[in-house]
Amino acid sequence: MTTPHETDWKASRSKRLQASAIGAIGYPTIQLLGHSCRWRAEGLEHFDTVRAAGRFPVMAFWHGRILPALYFFRRRGIVVITSDNFDGEWAAKIIHRFGYATVRGSTSRNAARVALKAKRQMEAGRTVGLTVDGPRGPALVAQPGAVWLAKASGNPVLPFHAEASSYWTARSWDAAQIPRPFSRVAIVVGRPFFVPADADDQALEAYRRELEERLMALQPRARTLAVEASWP
What we know:
Layout: H1 4-7, H2 13-36, E1 38-42, H3 44-52, E2 58-61, H4 66-72, E3 79-82, H5 86-97, E4 101-104, H6 111-123, E5 128-131, H7 145-153, E6 157-164, E7 167-169, E8 177-179, E9 184-189, H8 201-227
Parallel strand pairs: 1-9, 2-5, 2-6, 3-4, 3-5
Antiparallel strand pairs: 6-9, 7-8
Helix pairs in contact: 2-5, 6-7
């Protein structure tokens, strides 16, 4: 059920000011944190290969890794899906300053409409990133949005995962990972895969499970890279 908090915040001047304040504080905080960390990527050539072929990947990752993903992939012209509620408003203010564009909408109330907006962005030549277990979980369970978008757009799904060597864990449904200052953060990008345009519901479910399995398989490799002593 939709609450007044989700639909009526725009009518509140104090809420609008609060969203602006969070955005103003959030951007430099994340910028400083990200700059202090050491970053290492494995498999980034998969992203480059997809782009070199003239395609635009559907970048799929877990909701609990938004912060490292936001910083690492900044200023690449990526479009991300954000909710149209209050939390989505202040998040969008931060996201925009990192060079992302946004598609606003509720994937829980009107998923089809949001997916169509994202498809149009891909048709205009933009990469789309989305948290496959968002916006409300359950955590680490892939929703069908990424594979549907890959089918509809003809672009591949590109899964990736991030792990920090030292971090805080948020008390949230996604147990979001917040890298500690000066920690090492590893990003592991998996191989892309396509979803056929004629995939039926049964096939889409199989690809959804495949995406989920691929994301889970990236986690141990990212953890290993994050804690390795032999960093450059």
